[in-house]
Amino acid sequence: MPYPSYFESFDVHQALADYPLGDGFLEAYAGMSRDALRELQNQRFLKLMVRGWQIPFYQRLWGAAGIEPGDIRSLDDIEKLPVFSKSDIMESVEQCPPIGDFSGLEGLAPEERPPVVFHTTSGTTGRPQPIIFGPRGREIQAMLVARAYRFMGLKPGATVQSTYGHGMINGGHYIREAVTRYTNAMFLSAGTGLETRSAQQVQLMHDFGVNVLVGFADYIKKLASVAEECGLVPGEDLRVDMIIGHLGQETRAALSDAWGGAALYDWYGVADTGCIAAEGPDQEGLYVWEDAHYLELLDVDSGKPVSSGETGNMVVTCLYKDDIYPVIRFNTCDITAEIPGANPFHLPFRRIRGFLGRSDNMVKLRGINVYPHGIGGMLAEMDCFTGEYVCIAERDDTGRETLTIMVEVTAPVAEHPQITAQSCALLKRKLGLEVGVELVWPGETAQWTELERRQKPLRLIDRRFG
Fold first, then answer.
1. Which structural domains are found in the chain, ordered by start?
2. Could you count the other beta carbons within 10 Å of the beta carbon of residue 237?
3. Distance (Å, rounded) from C-alpha 128 to C-alpha 132?
4. pTM metric for this prediction
5. Fewer Cβ atoms within 10 A, N terminus or C terminus of the chain?
């Protein structure tokens, strides 16, 4: 029986017109009012809701909350809908194995299905989550990454090396699609240290003149040390002028210096949603792609919207994903805050601070919430801090909970007592409670963070309940 191929199943030219990149991005949105943007969002939201009501997962989720189709008449009504998270998706998979009932493929025979792209999460915290994309949603997702890279200033003819993982996980694949289809850069899909040994990655950079690195900041920084071990000097033998990655709150200066002064650009997204926000050339926060996403910042405890400048969970509705796996009020459990004020490009889009930590990875000690991913930024005030650390939560025989931060430093042993005292005082001031600090040499936290093996290093070892 006849069926459409991948690019025949949607209008790629219309998708590029709807979600422009390059010069077309600024031409479309510079000077647009918030009201005009809201109207565009509303149109796309209503189309998305029609698709949502066709999906058993949403029928069940919304029905359990007493929601009927007529209750949601515009984007103003979105708060009536319940949020969902990864746990709800995994429950769907358990009830309807192997892919759940959230994709819109339910009830279709295999030969009747449209083209799909299938990936999973890494599964490091349990069973991998299946993630399914339709061609239109997948390509717009790639376009938004390319929009970010080009807005940041990716130069024509650049050579990009990616340290994102491949295999079944999504990250490396869709970054490759974004760069190869929607920029004119040459792309080297090196992957993680397990996929291509770190020394070999460095040699690839040297042989092919790589000038842009993309991936997670922790591993990219490690590669600078590997380069030196291989006798290659970052900034001289390896002329990387741009690093695009997930920078978190770790020190940017140390990463830039490690690569000879490379410019750093942050962006944010998760597997279910694609690229949500990215830094521009002004580097004054991450611009939310609000033509493609409706982003809510909700209080971790109450679920209510937070005020501008306050931290909250990022809850995302993908306005463009109206084919396969619509995403409507997905709680990423990632924390950020809005940056108030105008931007130099006169864009109608809000800006956020980027990833500040995970609400589901929070440690509550003596009534105070501590986000392990945010501690690196606090320690960045110390010149001897390498950027690598791990938090260890424990409970002693009396039931008292403690948190010890294992911190990699380059300072001589004779200076360790003074640095330990300074670190403890710094963290007490910033966290509002006392924590322990243990100083170790560079590389000694890797056995706990699993830096070589994971895209996102572990920052918390919780021994309180073992």
1. 362-462 (3.30.300.30)
2. 15
3. 13
4. 0.83
5. N
